[in-house]
Every structure is written in structure tokens, then in C-alpha cells.
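#struct-pred

JT: dropping the chains for the assembly here, can someone run the whole complex?
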Amino acid sequence: MNRHSWREVKRQLRESGPAGLVAIVLVMVASAWGGVLWSVRQWVQAELLARGRQTTVVAVARGQAEAATLSEAFQGRFPTLASVSLTPRKVQEELASWFPELSTLLLTLDERSFPSIVQVEVAPDQEEAVASFLRSRPEVTLVESSRGWQARLEQAVSRFFFAGFVLALTLLIGCCAVVLLVVRLLVLNHADEIAIMRLIGAHERDIRRPYLVCGSLLGAAGGVLGAGLLLALELVLRPTLPTLAIENWVLGALPPAGGLTAAVGAALGLASLPREP
Amino acid sequence: MIHLEGITKSYNSRPALRGVNAKVERGEFLYLSGPSGAGKSTFLRLLYRAELPDSGHIVVNGSDLPKMRRRDVADFRRRLGVIFQDFKLLRRRTVAENVTFVLSLLNLPEKDQQRRAYLVLKQMGLQHRMSAFPDELSGGEQQRVAIARALVLQPDLILADEPTGNLDPERSHELLELFKTINYQGTTVVVATHDRGLIEAHPARTLFLDRGSVVKDGWGSVP
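RK: done, full complex below.
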């Protein structure tokens, strides 16, 4: 790129006007959304769906006596694991503490409305054996495992991320399309000048390069703004979600990703350029 | 330097050139003359490969134009100095940038580009208009910028299409003197003009075209 090419790029950036601004904003939104998607996904994986986390298995017993029998049987079968037996009263208090806004109501209910529960914390690899044992017991009416909830959450999260990915892809295609249109407009406006440049000995690469650079700079500018937006979002969310961190490489990757996306759009826009006979 | 053999060219079935044969030696000065629509501009456009002939052979500066690969066209044109009838200046660039642009294509150092552009623009009497844009110039000034751009590369061959069309008689004669000087230094010059007075004042070999055919090839002004 020589001085002439850089000046041409500056002229093109000026001439791209509102359409160029739309391209920048679109890349900013797309790149920030991509960053959010990636960072939240990492956070969910680490905080909510971690494979190594202890699993809680809960068994609902038919009554208090059955709960005691169950605990004994459990200790006999799994002597190294500690089980906690919760009386209906304790369950009532626990629920009231989890849902303070409903506590008045919960605490006025008859304690017999609540079940006796046996709760066990196990390593993930033991979860299946423990749950199977509990299900096989006649004292038990229901067995639930946090692993099951985790699997359901994982499924919901993966659906959400798939939708997010589709949206990101749509935005990405939108960015490409807008930059394509910006470059095509510029090329149309400069059609005479491009023909002259060819006639006085400019190579195709001399002609096309400034348009590609202009498109890439629009994308990179959008990427930089997207990174700024992401950083601002992190600062806003930090008090609520202190463990949600945007990795530096994600911030660093947004401008080149924006530039690359826009470069593809610019290259497609240049495809309309008529060639020499 | 230039060799045309059996060249025909039509636009929408209307023949512009019909079986033209011509040979121009290196270092020669040639006028292309004839009435409007005779095929002078088409002749020149074929020489800088803006057009391809329907049939026939063209060799310019050692390059067989119909067989030339697209990617070699730019390099071929860099060895030519073409002065277009409608100037073909880059509107969004200043006079200086119009001239240095062709030098930048050769990757010459910035200072060298500026120096050469200044010298050639001074020669054209435009050194005080270097930062003006083409639309701020008169027709004559624009034509001189176009000439400066063609000369700055010190080309092997100069092709000029009505280069004096917008110049006053004094400037026209000065320009022809300049072309002659460049020609004496070994550069081949082809000038398309319908100005008989100019040909009479600066006589040289003249190819007279009429309705797409060469009707006379001789010295000086022709009927």
C-alpha cells in the first residue's frame, strides 16, 4: 500500500457515509453478541454445568419411620457416604428459607403436607449406583438427582446457544451484506475512475486493494466498538455476576474478526467489478 | 514498434475499421488523420488494448495484443503514454496526484514521484495548479494535465487522441514542438488529429483514414 492507496482508502471511508456507519454498527452488535455468547457459555460451563461437581441425590420417603429405615439401609450399603435425613418440619423450614416471600404461607401449612427426605452428596461417578439403590427401596416414593436437573439445564442451555449461534451467523451474514453493498456503491460511483486507472496501467490489485482495506477497516472499527461494548457490559454485570469474566483474547479477537468478516463482504462486493476485455 | 495486419473492428455490426494494415517503426512520428467517424479513435484504442479486433493481428512494442493475457495488460500500458480525447483525469485527485499516480504504480520513491511530477507540470506551465482538482481547471489546463501524465513515465510510445482539441493555436504548436522533441529522443509518437493546419505546420508521415480504411499513407497533409 503506497501513499496514493492510503489516500484513496481515506476518501472511500469518507464517501461510505451513513451506509458505512450502518456497517460499523452492525459489526459492533454482531461482534459484541458473539463475545457475550462465548463468555456466557464459558461461565455456564464452569459454574453451572461443571462435570466434577458433587451431585445431590434426594429420596422422598413415605414417612418419618421409613426415612429412618432408609437411612440405616443406605449406611449399610454405602458406609463411606453420609446421608442427611430431613424431617417434614425441617423441609418446611428449608423451603421457607429458600422462598422468603412465601415463607409466611409455607410456615402456616400443616407440616404433614411436607415429605420426609433423605439427602446424599455423592461424587458424579457414584450418582447412578446411589440413585438405583434408592429407587429400588420400598420406603421411597420418588428419587431426584441434581445430575438430572443439570442434564435438563444443559439441554436448555445448548438450545439457547444454538439459537444464539444462528442469530450470530445471521448478524455475520448481515455484516457481510452491508459491507458488500457499501463497496458495491463505491465501485459504482467510481466506475469511470476505475476504467481510467486501468487505461493508465493500474493492475487489478492496485484498484481492488483500497476497497478491500476500506471494507476491512469498517469491520475492524465495528469490532473495536464491539469489544468496548462487551467490556462495558462486563463492568455493569460484575456486581451481580462476579465470576463472569470476559477473557482478554476474546476482546482482542473481535477487531480482526470484524475486519475479516467485512473483508469477505468487500471481496464479494468487488466481484461486480467488470474486467478487462 | 507497431504492426497491424488485416484489422477489422465493428460495433453492433457497423464496421469501424475494415482490413487495416499499417506498420510504424520505432522512433517514427505518425499522424492519424481523417474526418470524424473515420476510425482514428478506434485505431488508437486498439493500440492500447482498450479494444480487441474482430480479426487480424496487432503487435505493439513487441506485444501481440489479441494474445496478451489480462494480467499483462497493465504492464504493457505502463510503457505507453496515452493522451485521451476526453482527458480521462481522476476527478477526486489533485493535478499532482493525477500525475504521481502513474509513478506510484511503478513503486518509485515518494520524493522521486514529486520531483518528476513537478518537472513535467512545470513544462506544461501548470506548476502553480498542482493542488487544484480537475474540475477547477479550464479545458486547456485539463488537457495539459493529461499530457503531463502521459509524458511523466517517459514511455516508449505516445498515443495522442486529438491532443490539441482544447488548446489555443499557440499552445497547440508548443505541444507539437514538444512531441517532436520527444520523438527526436527516440520515442515513437502517434497523433490522431483532424487539424490539417497542424499537420502542415509540423509535417510528418500521415495515415489518412476514411470510413474505416487507410486511403493514403504519405508525408504531410492529405486530401
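JT: nice. Chain A touches chain B at residues 2-4, 7, 11, 190, 192-193, 196-204, 206, 275-277 (CB under 8 Å). The mean pLDDT of chain A is 88.
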